[in-house]
């Protein structure tokens, strides 16, 4: 388990809703908060960040938190709200009911 002192950022996990527009198409709706958690954020290495900047690409960050039943329901189509919006690209439970790590890229 991650030392509690290392989990120093409070983030929100949100699930976007889909609505129907006037023409019957899908449109993004309001986001509903699933959970909040204190996390440790691990960004890419300095070399990875420089390489991404040169290519005008985005770099992923890993949000490490303690496992909770609510966080176990978070899926890849959900988002993380922390200093902007992050698109979750993977989730990885670590040890049974111990930790869960989410990898995400900045959406905005």
Explain the overall architecture.
The protein has 2 helices and 6 strands. It is mainly beta and 108 residues long. It has one domain (4-19, 26-106): Bacteriophage SPP1 head-tail adaptor protein (Thrombin, subunit H). The model has no long low-confidence stretch (mean pLDDT 84).
Provide the fold topology:
Elements (H helix, E strand, L loop, with lengths): L8 E12 L5 E18 L2 H9 L5 E7 L12 E3 L3 E10 H4 E8 L2
Antiparallel strand pairs: 1-2, 1-4, 2-3, 3-6, 4-5, 5-6
Can you name the CATH architecture? Beta Barrel
CATH C-level category: Mainly Beta
How many helical elements? 2
Mean pLDDT reading:
84
Q: Which residue ranges are poorly predicted, with pLDDT under 50 across at least 5 consecutive positions?
A: none
| Count of distinct structural domains | 1
* Terminal CA distance: 31 Å
Give me some keywords for this one.
2 helices, 108 residues, Thrombin, subunit H, 54% strand, mainly beta, six-stranded antiparallel barrel, single chain, globular, 6 strands
